[in-house]
Amino acid sequence: MTAPPPPPPPPEQQDKMRQADNSGIVTGSKPATVSKQYPQSTFNETKVDRDSFYGAIRTIFADSVLKTQLEQLRKQGSYEAFKLQWHPSYDVRPLQGAKARNDGIPPSLFWESDVGKWVEAACYFLMSGEASSHKAEFDAAITELVNMIESAQQPDGYLNIYFTVVDPAGRLKNLRDMHEMYNAGHLLEAALAHYQYTGSRQFLDVMIRNVEFFMKEVGPNEGQIHGYPGHPELELALFRLYAVTRDQRHLEYVRYLLNERGVSRPEYDNFYHHEAKLRDDILNNKVEYQQAHKPIVDQENILGHSVRAFYLLVAAADAGGQLQVAARRLFDQAVRGKMYVTGGFGSEPSFEGFHEYEHVLPQSTAEGGCYAETCASIAAMMTAERFLADKLDGSVRDTLELAFLNAALGGASLDAKAFSYANKMATCCDETAFRKEWFEVCCCPPNLSRTLGLLGGYTWSANVDADNKSISLNVLLLLSATRTIPLGDGVTATVTMKSGMPFQGHTTFEFAAPEGWSWDLHLPSPGYATDVTVSVPTTADNGFLAATLPATASVSLDFNLPVRILASNPAAHDLLTVTRGPIVYVAESVDNVALDERFPHFEGVGLTTTATFTESEETLEGVTVTLLTSASGDFKHLDRWDLNQGYTVAKPATWSPVEDKVTLVPWFARANRGGAGRLRTSFARAA
Amino acid sequence: MTAPPPPPPPPEQQDKMRQADNSGIVTGSKPATVSKQYPQSTFNETKVDRDSFYGAIRTIFADSVLKTQLEQLRKQGSYEAFKLQWHPSYDVRPLQGAKARNDGIPPSLFWESDVGKWVEAACYFLMSGEASSHKAEFDAAITELVNMIESAQQPDGYLNIYFTVVDPAGRLKNLRDMHEMYNAGHLLEAALAHYQYTGSRQFLDVMIRNVEFFMKEVGPNEGQIHGYPGHPELELALFRLYAVTRDQRHLEYVRYLLNERGVSRPEYDNFYHHEAKLRDDILNNKVEYQQAHKPIVDQENILGHSVRAFYLLVAAADAGGQLQVAARRLFDQAVRGKMYVTGGFGSEPSFEGFHEYEHVLPQSTAEGGCYAETCASIAAMMTAERFLADKLDGSVRDTLELAFLNAALGGASLDAKAFSYANKMATCCDETAFRKEWFEVCCCPPNLSRTLGLLGGYTWSANVDADNKSISLNVLLLLSATRTIPLGDGVTATVTMKSGMPFQGHTTFEFAAPEGWSWDLHLPSPGYATDVTVSVPTTADNGFLAATLPATASVSLDFNLPVRILASNPAAHDLLTVTRGPIVYVAESVDNVALDERFPHFEGVGLTTTATFTESEETLEGVTVTLLTSASGDFKHLDRWDLNQGYTVAKPATWSPVEDKVTLVPWFARANRGGAGRLRTSFARAA
Question: What is the ipTM of this complex?
Fold first, then answer.
């Protein structure tokens, strides 16, 4: 067993270290490396106002969603699985009734990651003092899980349920598909959260031993497997581990994993082909799926599984240098050419991934695809956050907000009982948009929980320059919250933001720092906003508005949020979508029963670019949202075509006005109010 | 070794048997079975006029394409492969540079079928007295191949290059993927043609022994593998074998193969899952790809690989009863909902197959897909022919003609040097529409050759009622040809058809039968034709025009072929296509250089429903075709969008008139005249 690394400093001391280290430079025998602030480590400086839009959403997660998810994990068997007992789902053989996926991967191969994300989410909420009615139960569950995880670890540091219980000989034989390193990444993130929450090293030490196992077995040296994870995740977790351990070997290891990916060696063109050959696996799978077809720095087109792609980009963005340049290039391409208007990613259900070409973004299965996995949008948010930590950019911020408020946030029902994995832009046939209670592979639900748990970390970033007594504050999300910023020696500054976003464009800030300090403020100037005004002088800075403020100050930021009808790039689909501010709107059957009965799924219903809408409010499970209702005739319809019709002699298109006033609901709030469950987000352009 | 079956009657006697058996009923201990006339057995009664459109095309195949293909088979190694020597392409491991496909199937696994189709095609042309300048070479090649094939057969009747040379232990272990039965089907079809051409039983006996091998190893009885071919083909070949051997066991065997497909047994849900388990193959592949997800009679949605689907339908149509009902239901669905306007099938390149949903028919890779394999359209023609042999139906005839004249015929360049496999409706990015010299899996080129070789068999069907001295003639394709119909006892009738089709709607017929005979004629009344007139009284009969004629008669059929702009079902794409008669027209860069330079691939170019066209003629490699040229302004264009543009605030769509007159060429003749090679078949509806 490898000797354990030096212990990380306790959390309090880390905070100080971070604050004292705002230069971001760590010196040592290796090249200087930027020390990042991660939202996961800073989130708890922020208290989100419970009586606000975002607060109400977080309350649903704290009070109900986490509990639902814990129950589902117990029911599924993943909770108990660390006891290393046999479970029927371990049988991957394509037997009648067996739980095997098309790719031969049993769902249980993801179990560590599901549990890990729940532990991580629970730690964040509990650290925030939330979920208080469940605290005893959650604490007990966390303790039991950590104990089971510790006991499941093998003497050599290996830690994986499936390959310990079912297939010990298969260990590390298939890094491409078998998720050993992916699971380790999520457990490591959970361990970091657990260490933060409890101050106990128990779980973190388990995971450091597990990382050391991989460092011994998988690496660049002779006798090691020159591989890398088929599903990235460990990489981004290792960067966060390094921020705690400051162990250069952890940093070197993630650099190895990132740089080795997609490399051809004299013995083989691709590591995944090589390990497949060693397994006598004759399938010559396309490794674009794993973003392993060429080195990251050479990739020009974002391809393959969307979640894998973005998790990889998070780590590449963190790595800096040419890896970050490549990550930004691929992120920009994804946003420009492969993103749904909701901030969803991945049009291809068959591999949960990107179409090869840009602008191929079908709305529904019946129109050629659509997937838009919740996790992909969360991972895109994570990627955007890394870029923004490096350099502010208004368009990247807008994407973070868009993906969060629409594609990601819609991944749970407001009653906390059901979740979505794919988030299709339109239903079709007998599909509905209703969410499901759980999934065999249930990566998305706890991923959304941990994202809500650390929301404060996404809200703003702060850097303290003690020498110049200056606090730099970059506001990324406009919401209602208070942040307490430690300035060292027990002194703090506070900033309180109150915002009507995402529905009203009025936001106020109260800044309070000790005398002699100043604030270097950056406020967002969103692309969707008009008539942006700030109560203090500002200068435009790459999509942000910069102001310097004295220690104590009040600032208000105001803008209008007109309805904007957005057009897609018409290369493959010429579609219009109603938006207002960062919110994307969708027509669903519950509000438009008569229209949906005549045109189920609103097929054949088009929109005019000159449509106007009236606003109304509705409160759903404590969350108040703005609905939009069109004027009569703003939507039009094609004469209902015969579904049994093939090609016909063309007649001039006749779009007839729809007399109905069409009511639209925010995308994230869809499928929460019953009805037939059919919907459509983007409409044909009605002439 | 199983005892050989009773020898079939020699070809002359078969002809008599067929003529004497017009009742279609074969009696025996088994239920009565309709005895079909196959185009492969009747084609040689027809001589296609060399100085006609179809004759000119056949001349290209007879004089040049067959020779090109023979050279390519030699170059590829498939010709020599029956000598059972090692070949580098046999290595299926995913090694650098190795010839392995994504599915792990080496291209050489298809070699028997490629060679078989070439032998079959050469036999048809040689029987027709064509390819005379190559007769000696082709005869020698056929003889050498048949000798090699015979020598490659194993003592037990097994015949497969790969599993004899490379992997003897793999024999019959993977019926789903490994093409042993598929290859047998094509070789059996070749053997039937060879027997017809030479009168020698050499090849046919080899293949009967091979069929007997499968009958012994794969079947319903204890100790047998209860499987069926992953790629249908043997089934339809077995029906044709039965028509020669009249061996009820051959008929029973094909019925077993068809009825067992997709059946759940107590031991397993699906045979392919079962055999995968026996191979320790953990992949739980979707067997929709092989149309094996449920019994054929229960299938409601045509799914999976398009060529496999249609080959299966050919056999199911031949089987009659509920299998035929299911085949017709699936065929009708494919034509209505999953067919490109050219008669192409298969929108999904990733698995060369059908989209799950109807009307998802993207035009290009950049628009979401498009495949339209040449073989799929040939197989659709074959399916249509089986239905028409059973019952005339004008819409089925129209589909046969459409798929043949557009999707299939375009599979070879008119200079006989290059072939297409996928036939995409539009090019994109750096793609061109130019064909390729050969393919690693080259099923399509020789498939097209054999189709042209037996064209006379698709042209019309004849049934002789000797008792009533009546000749029933059903005309399926309008072209210039003469058919000599044996009436028994050496007496014949002739019918000569002269037609301007597919470009001019004037056709004449001269009927000459011995005195006392009459003709029961059915002429097509195509759906695309207007002002249809016949020079004799007719009655409408399900899309055909029926007339009774005396022994000697002249008939003329006339109709107009107006340009028709066809609209797709707008469920997924609202597109317009210019057609005239059975010919689909396409814009390609060579005729429209300036427009294609401004709008490469004609992206952003739309069409109005009121466009008018002028006609002109051009002769390409001896084939005269009609081109269409629009008036200025009939096509329109969107303001060129920024390819780097994501979502933008919508403005009213502005379609500006294209000043250029746009020239369109028949789809089959595309990519034959140089230029940039970009094209577009279907256009957005320009308001």
Answer: 0.84
